[in-house]
Amino acid sequence: MTSTALENQLIVGAILFALGMIGFLTRRNLILIMLSAELMLHGVSVNLTAFGRYHGNPQGQVFTIFVLTVAACEAGLALSLILTLYQRRKSLDVFLWGNLGEDDLRVLSGSSSSTQPTTKVVDPNADFPHLTPAGRAPKSPVTKT
Q1: Separation between Cα atoms, residue 32 and residue 93, nearest integer Å
Q2: How many Cβ atoms sit within 10 Å of the Cβ of residue 40?
């Protein structure tokens, strides 16, 4: 492989990475953000294979396999998070991630100690569900007469 071929492949990899970074930083749609992250990983993979081929060893290609494995895992996790967000908010806007917390928790503003977080008082006599001990038949709620 000649040095001009290496330069051309490195330019293509850098362009892919730059386009992915621009997309990651400018988009608000979660699917497009994840696609941009994938594009950045593929730009890195092109550069790794180019360097591996230029130096005549397979280490770049082997490392690319690991990068693509990480990319596939990232895509699966991102898809599950995106589906969860869409089910809860009916939108894919990235700014909706900020208010996905629990309803009873408050965010304390600043470091002022004057605001105290509210705590729930748990009733010790509350009727919690109980597991049936092993070997006993559960009590039936319907009584036979």
Answers
A1: 11
A2: 19
pLDDT digits (tens, 9 = 90+) for 50-99: 999 998 888 889 999 999 998 899 888 888 888 887 887 787 777 776 66
Tell me the domains of the chain and their CATH numbers.
3-95 (1.10.287.3510)
Round to whole Å and give the CA distance between 127 and 27. 49
Closest-CA residue to 38 (of 13, 72, 11, 15): 72
CA distance 59 to 57: 6
pTM over 0.85: no
* Angle (CA) 16 40 48, round 5°: 80
Reduced DSSP (H G I as helix, E B as strand, rest coil) percent helix, strand, coil of the chain, to 5: 60, 0, 40
Q: Is residue 61 classed as helix, strand or coil in its secondary structure?
A: helix
Output the six-digit token pair for 89.
């908010």
d(CA 99, CA 2): 53
In whole angstroms, give the CA distance from residue 18 to residue 111.
Answer: 39
